[in-house]
Amino acid sequence: METISKWSINFSSGVHVYKQIINNIYEAIGNGELKEGDKLPTIKELSEQLQVNPNTIAKSYRELELKGVIAGKRGNGSFISAHQAKTAKLTAEERDSRLNKLFSRVIAEAKSEGITEDELMNYIMDRR
User: Fold this and answer.
1) What are the angstrom distances between the C-alpha of 75 and each of 48, 72, 79?
2) DSSP-assigned letter for residue 40
3) pLDDT (tens digit, 9 = 90+) per residue, 97-115?
4) Phi and psi dihedrals of 44, rounded to 5?
5) Domain boundaries, the chain
6) pTM across the whole model
7) Residues with Cβ < 8 Å from 110, sequence gap 6 or more?
8) Between vectors from CA 105 to CA 128 and to CA 34, what angle results, nearest 5°?
């Protein structure tokens, strides 16, 4: 799977490895590289590719499944679920809460990479 071959883990970023995996999946969904129904690699495959403990991959998949982002099909693997449809039904208050949590994570990760809030905001504004 080409999308996943681009993923990398930064073990010194201060962001938990399982969260980095989750963020990679969210990013791939957000930019259209992963769509509803796409199959994710098995825990063993992704573990070998990223050089990460299989339990860490399993934790990422479990969290994404609890959030409804992926669906596990016993014996068949894990697939991207209809997350976009679920997100579209959020109330304004739920959307604000999620945006706040997301922004806090982005700021924390940027700071761990030595990127200031101003640099991040300028980058975001330039991408519009």
Assistant:
1) 20, 9, 12
2) P
3) 888 888 888 888 888 889 9
4) -65, -45
5) 1-89, 90-128
6) 0.66
7) 116, 117, 119, 120
8) 65
